[in-house]
Structures are given as structure tokens and as C-alpha cells.
Amino acid sequence: xxxxxxxxxxxxxxxxxxxxxxxxxxxxxxxxxxxxxxxxxxxxxxxxxxxxxxxxxxxxxxxxxxxxxxxxxxxxxxxxxxxxxxxxxxxxxxxxxxxxxxxxxxxxxxxxxxxxxxxxxxxxxxxxxxxxxxxxxxxxxxxxxxxxxxxxxxxxxxxxxxxxxxxxxxxxxxxxxxxxxxxxxxxxxxxxxxxxxxxxxxxxxxxxxxxxxxxxxxxxxxxxxxxxxxxxxxxxxxxxxxxxxxxxxxxxx
Length: 253
Hints:
Blueprint: E1 8-12, H1 17-28, E2 32-37, H2 40-54, E3 59-63, H3 69-83, E4 88-91, H4 106-134, E5 137-142, H5 155-175, E6 180-187, H6 193-196, H7 201-210, H8 219-230, E7 241-244, H9 248-251
Parallel strand pairs: 1-2, 1-4, 2-3, 4-5, 5-6, 6-7
């Protein structure tokens, strides 16, 4: 028996990169996965791949912009109506824009906050009643190892991820009485299409060289940690931020 047989999982930012790896890992472990993203084509493709690899119905595409609260509630309710319940929520959606803070466009700041922070609020709000009705479950938020040290041109991004850590602790306290576990994962540098849009090859090599293990984590390794936190192996884990960073936060930037 797989660790997540019969479970229903709602994953945001799920069509590419770490989100796609998470979706596939949850489906492999037996979960039915809502693959939620703004990119319709990539969302459908990821869902089709999950179904082909794990059986029909394992991946369910939902085109949704998590910055839109009404759209989030509609997608969540529709998914639960189709699956009969909700067990796992993964808040992975993020928007990247790196620049010195004095030069950061107002619209870029709004978009990053709307997707990366408010989107987590909306998804967690929409999910809570369904998790309570299920008798418990878990919420897993994607933070970043970057909150542990300063990074040039990343003031908005790291501020959002720092807020995610605080939100995770707060929700662990507020929702624990309902049997809902809330934790975060803080990846170090992971090569993904989104991150590579703002980090070049030299930047990746510099990050690899700084890690004590001299390697970068993979998206599949992040996904494996999500599966663990979502499983019954982690029933007493809540309120933490798990760093998967090759030790880069030990040495700093």
C-alpha cells in the first residue's frame, strides 16, 4: 500500500518545476492531486503525465490564479465535490522578480505579494473547512532557505518567504486542535525553469560551490519531503520549517 492511498491533495503552482515534481510524487503515493496553475497548457500536460504514470484520475487540472480569492474558493470547492474530501494542501505558487528595492516596480511588488503571500492566505482559508470536515490533514507551505541570510536584489521575495514561516507557526497553533498539521519546507537553490529565469549558469555554480555538500537539491528531493510531511509518518510534526539546502544556511551567502 502506498503512503497516501485514498488521499486528496491540492497543489498550487503545480504545472512546472518543484510544483510539478510534488504533484507527481503525491500521485505516485496514491493521492488524487488537484494540479493548480495559471498556465492552462502546462497544467493539462502535467495532469496528463500524472494520469499516464499512475492511473486515470490521479491528476486533475485546475486553471486558477491564486491571487484571486473567489477563484481559489471555487476551485477548492469543485475539487472537493469531485473527490469527496481534502487531506493535503501544498502552497507552492510563487512569482519571481529580483531587483534592488528602490528600483522594484510597484506592479511587480503587488504581483509577488498577491501570489506568494495572499495566495497562501486564500488557499488556506478555502481549505480549512474541508480539512476540519475530514477530521484533520496537513498544510505544507513552501518557504526558502534565503530567509536565513541576506541576498542581493531579493528584498521582496525573502520578505514574503519570511512571512510564510511566521504564518506556518501561527496556523499550526490555530489549527492544531482540529487535527490539522501545518509545516513549511525551505529549499535551498534548486534549478527550475522559474528560478533559471533570474539566475544564470554562473549564479547556479556559485550557489553549488557555497554548499557544504557541494551539490544542489533537486525538485524530486523537495517533493519527497512533501510526501513525508503529508504521510502518517509525520503525524507529530507541525509548526516547523524544514530546510533542504545542502547546508547553505550554515555557511551563509
